[in-house]
Amino acid sequence: MTPFQERLHGVIPALLTPLTSELSADTDALRRLVRRVVDAGCHGFVLMGTTGEFASIDDADRAGVIRAAVAEATGKVPVIVGCGQPNVQRVHDQTKEAADNGADGLLVNPPFYFPLSNDEIVRYFEGVVKASPIPVLLYNIPGMTKVAVDAPTLVRLRDVGVQGTKDSSGDPKNLLSYLQATRNDDFRVIVGGDGQLVHALMSGASGTTGPAPNVAPQLVLAIFNAWQDGDLAAAAAAQNRQNELLHA
Prior knowledge:
The chain is of the alpha/beta class. The chain contains eleven helices and eight strands. Strand 3 (about 80-85), helix 4 (about 90-100) and strand 4 form a beta-alpha-beta unit.
C-alpha cells in the first residue's frame, strides 16, 4: 500500500468552493471551511469536485484555491484536487498545477460528452497516471459524465496505476462489484454519497466523500467513528440523523 492509500480512509468532505460577489474564488472563506472540517476530525478533503463546481471555476482561480487549502491543512490531512476535462492536455496541465501547489492526490473523471469504449477509458487513465507527479483516483460519476466504468475496467485501471476510486454511481450493486473486484489488494474504494455510508462500510469501503460535512461534519464523523468502534447500532442511528438532514 502506498503512503497515499494509507491515508485515504474515513470522512473526506467534498468541499464547496466559496465565491465572492464577483464570482471569483473566495480563498479566505475557503480557508475557514478547511479549518472547520480539519478541526472537526475529518480525514482529508476534495477540492473542485462536483460539489466544488469545478466546471464553473475560472482556470485563473484554480492555483490559488489549491494553495490556500494546502496552506490551511498544514499537512494534517491529504488534499485531493478534482481534475475533470474532456481535453486531455488540460487535464495534464491541471495535474501538474495541483502537484506544484502542494496537493497530495487527484480525483479524475473520464472525459465527458463523447461516448468512450472501455479500452479508450483505460488508455486515457494510463496517460494521466504517467503524466501525473501525484497519485490518481478514478471519479466514477456516470450520471454527470454519461460514462460508466464497470468493475472489469476498474481492475484494468488499477493495473495501470490508478490507486483508488470514488464511486458516485449511486448504485449499491456497482459499489459492491467494485469492492469484490479489488478486495484482495490495496486499491481504495470510497463511496460518493454520505447517505450510503453505513452500507458502504459494511460492504468494505474505506470511507466517504460527500457534501454533508460542509454543513455538519460531526454527523458524518459520528457514523464512521461508531463503525470503527464496532457499534453498528450507533452507526445506524447516526446515519438516520444525517439522512434526515440530507432530506430536509
